[in-house]
């Protein structure tokens, strides 16, 4: 991420190892091809790709209305339009990457209860 050049502290209310983590349930999400490319550029996609399912075709329609669109990866010279990943699996893998990242400190489970600053200190930004 920052290569250890910038210290990062991640505060997460839930234990990432918990099977009941609300963000890591049994749902699956679709990631666009561009998102997968961005994740690859920062070295993350390589750890997720083995558990992803490529999206070869997409059909878009609205029941009761005329018209539809079919998209096929091959029509655009792509191997896939995107990828489908399971949240539980991707969440565990992403937290694994964070645990290994230099300069990243995880605080889990934890919550921010107050923020205080002193005059002259640099202020965090969002």
From TrEMBL:
InterPro entries: FAD/NAD-bd_sf, UbiH/COQ6_monooxygenase. Keywords: Oxidoreductase. GO terms for molecular function: 2-octaprenyl-6-methoxyphenol hydroxylase activity. Its EC number is 1.14.13.-. It is an enzyme of class 1 (oxidoreductase). This is 2-octaprenyl-6-methoxyphenol hydroxylase.
């Amino acid at each position: 991420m920052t290569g250890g050049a910038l210290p990062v502290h991640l505060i997460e209310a839930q234990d990432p190892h918990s099977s009941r983590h609300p963000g890591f349930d049994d749902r699956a999400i679709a990631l666009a091809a561009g998102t997968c490319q961005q994740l690859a550029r920062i070295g993350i996609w390589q750890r997720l790709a083995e558990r992803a399912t490529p999206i070869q075709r997409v059909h878009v329609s609205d029941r009761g209305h005329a018209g539809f669109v079919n998209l096929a990866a091959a029509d655009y010279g792509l191997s896939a339009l995107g990828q489908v990943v399971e949240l539980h699996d991707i969440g565990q893998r992403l937290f694994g990457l964070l645990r290994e990242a230099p300069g990243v400190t995880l605080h889990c489970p934890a919550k921010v209860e107050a923020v205080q600053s002193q005059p002259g200190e640099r202020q965090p930004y969002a």
